[in-house]
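Lab notebook, bench 4. We co-purified these components, and the gel suggests they stay together. Before we commit to crystallization screens, I want a quick structural picture of the whole thing.
Request: model the full complex, all chains together.
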Amino acid sequence: MKILVAVKRVVDYAVKVRVRPDRTGVETASVKMSMNPFCEIAVEEALRLREAGAAAEVVAATVGPAQSADTLRTALAMGADRAVHVLHDPDPQRPLLPLAVAKILRAVALQEKAGLVILGKQAIDDDCNQTGQMLAGLLNWPQGTFASKVILDKEKATVEREVDGGIETICLDLPAVITTDLRLNQPRYATLPNIMKAKSKVIKKVTPEDLNVDIRSDMEVLEVTEPPKRKAGVILSSVDELLDKLKNEARVL
Amino acid sequence: MQRVLRVAAAAAARLAGAPRWGPAAAATVRWLSGGRESMSYDVVIVGAGPAGLAAAIRLKQLCRAADTDLSVCVLEKGSEVGAHVLSGNVFEPRALDELIPKWRQEDTPIRVPVSSDKFWLLTKNKAWTLPSPFDNKGNYVISLSQLVRWMATKAEELGVEVYPGFAASEILYDENQIVTGVATNDVGIAKDGSKRETFQPGRMTLLAEGCRGSLSEKIIRNHKLRESGQGQHQTYALGIKEVWEIKEEKHKPGSVVHTVGWPLDLNTYGGSFIYHLDNRQLSIGLVVALNYRNPFMSPYDEFQKFKQHPAVRKILEGGTVLQYGARTLNEGGFQSIPNPVFPGGAIIGCSAGFLNVPKIKGTHTAMKSGMLAAEASFKTLVEGSSMELYWENLKKSWIWEELYKARNYRPAFEYGFIPGMALSAVERYIFKGKAPFTLKHGRPDHEATDMASLHSPIQYPKPDGQISFDVPTSLYRSSTNHEHDQPPHLRLRDPTVPERVNLPLYAGPESRYCPARVYEYVSDEKGDQKLHINAQNCLHCKACDIKDPKQNIEWTVPEGGGGPGYTVM
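Here is the predicted assembly.
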C-alpha cells in the first residue's frame, strides 16, 4: 500500500513575521523557511506506518516554487522513498488556496494510486485547516482529521481524533485521508548520512497543467496590514465616567 | 546502523610516503558501535562562513583546472548558511575579485557602493565631524549573512556538499596524533548526556569557525600555535548590532558613519558604526574592546545608550528593528597571528585572526586565507607537498603586508584614548605603516578587568521601547533558540568559581557583558546568590569564553541547528 504525504514550505515557526512595506503580503524574501510542523508529523506517521509493515512506500508531495524542493529533500532525508514536486510560482495577489491545492493533490493521489493520504491539519502561515477536508470531499474518501493516534490494518484505519469535547475514535475504510494534530508523534531528525542519501532519491517534477488541474483563484488579495497597535488603557475616576464612556465611546450600552 | 562510506579510500591509497605534516596515508577506519556512522571526505571544512566557503570554492576550482576531483564537505552549526554570520559590513571586494571575478555580472548580494564616509567624535549631546581616516572607495555596504548564502550556492554548484545544522564538536586523532577529521554531535542528545555522534573523517581538516572558534582554540593550545606564530595573545572586542528599517527620508544608501567617544569613556577602546544598505535598511552597532576595566560595564546597555544620542536617534526615529545580534571579533592583528598549520589540517579566517583593525575589515582577509589554505591543501593532497606551504604563502601574501601596515593602531590605545588617537594619526599620516617599531598588546582581555571595589555600579537609562529596548525584546529579534532537552553547552571548569571569585571580587561581570543575559545571579532558598545559566539564550558570540576573569567558562558547541537565525546581519 502506498502512502502519499503532502508537505508545505512555510515561514519557519521561530521567525518574527512582518508585513512587506508595499503591503502586498508578508515578507518572505531572506526569511528562514522550513517544513510546516504539522507536515513533519505527517511524514513521521507515514514512516512509522511503513516501518510497522502497514505500507510499502511513502511518497512525499508538495506544491510550490523551485525552492520547495528543499522541503521535499527534508522529507526524503527523514525517510520518504520518492517525491513529487508540483511546480507553482506564488503570486501574492492571487495566492494558492486550499481548494486548488486539494484539486492538485487529488490528481497526484489518483496518479500514484495511494491507499492513504496523510496531511498536516493546517499550515502555520495561513491557518486554513481546509485542504485535508476538501481533498477527502473531492476524492469521495472518508476522512479522519486532527488525528492523535492512527492504527492501520489491511482495509481499515482506526483514528483517534482530538475534538473539542474530548477524543473521538472513528473507523475509516481505506482509501482515506488523515490530517495530523500535534500529539500524534514526535518527528525524527534527519541525520547527516540520511541527508546525503536523500540527494540521490528521485523527485518527479510536474505542473498543474500536466495534472489537468485549473488553479485559477477566485480570490484576490487587496491589502495586508499589521493589526492595529494596542492602545494604552485609560484609568477612570468614577462609575459615572465609566457609564458615560461605555454609552458614548464604546457604544455598548 | 554501522556503515562506513569510504569515498576517498582509493585516492588515499594512491598517496605514498606522506611527509611529516601531510595527511594520514590512509583514511583511518574506525569501528563504530551504538549508532555511530562515518562518512569520509578528502577535505572537511568546519564553518560555512566567508573563509570556509572561499576555501571550498577554491578547492573545486583547482580540481576543475587540473581535471581531477576531491570530495569537499562543509559543516555549519547554524540551522542554515548565514544563520550565525554577523558583521558590520563594509566589504572590500579584493579577495572576491580573485575568487569569482564574474561576481559583478551575477545577482550577487553586493549592490550598494559606499557613497559617503563620515567620522564623528561624540560627546553627550553633540557630534563633532573629524577627518575620516578610512578610504572606502570601491567598497560596498553589504549584509555578510546574505553574501555567504550566495557563496554557498556557488560552492554547491561546483560540487561542494554543504551541511547546515551540524555542529563539529570534537577533533578526531589517529595513533600518531595527526588530525583525521571531526565528529559532529547529532541532534537528539538528552539532558542526561546520552548522545549519538557521526564521525567525519577527512584527509584534510580546515577549521573556519570564526573568532574564538571552540575547536580552533583547543588546537591552538594543544599544539602551542601562538608560540610558533607571531607570539602575542589574541585580543578581542564585542560587537553588538541591529538592522533597522528606517523612514525613507532619513535613508541614504551607501552612507557610512563611524563614531568614537561617547558613550565609552577614555579608558575603553571602541566605537560605533552606522551603515545604510538598500531597501531602507540600516546596520547600526557598537564595538567595545574586551580589555575594558570596569566590571560594571554592560556593552549591551552602552549600545542602547548610544542610540539615544541626538545625532543618532534622529536617524532611527520612526523606524523598526528587523534583527539583533552580537559577536566577538579579533583585534590582535599582526602581532597575534598564530601558526595556522597543525598535523592534518589548518586554521583559516577569524579562527586564526586576520582582521584589519584600523580598517575594521576582516572579510576580505578571511576569504584570502581560505583561498591560500585551499591552494596548499590541493598541493598536499594531490601532489604530495605539505601544508607548511599555507603558512609560507600567507607570509608572502597581501594579507601579511596589509596587517603589517595596520599593526600599531590598536596597541597604541594601551596608553589611553588621547595618546592612542595621537599615535594613530602619526602612524597614518607620517609613518604610513613603516614605523621602525611594533607595539605590543597589553594584558590579555580576561586579566584586564579591575576588581569591583575600584568601581561603582553604572545606572543605565531604562529602555524606551522605541529606540532602546530590553534584552528579551532584542533576543526575540535574533531568532535564537536551542533545543530544551540538551545539556548546557556553557561549561564551568570549576563550578565553585562563580560564587567564590566572580561574584565577590568582580561583581559577576558575566551577568553584564553577555549580550544575551545568559548568566544571572539569582538567590536560592537560603538567600545566597547562585549563578544560573540560561544556555538557550546564547548568541554564540564567545564573549564569556574570552572575558571570564579566571577563564572558567568554556564555550562548547551545542546541538547543531540551534543558536541565532540571522538573515540580514
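Chain B has a mean pLDDT of 87. Worth comparing against the SEC data before the next meeting. Chain B has 15 helices and 23 strands.
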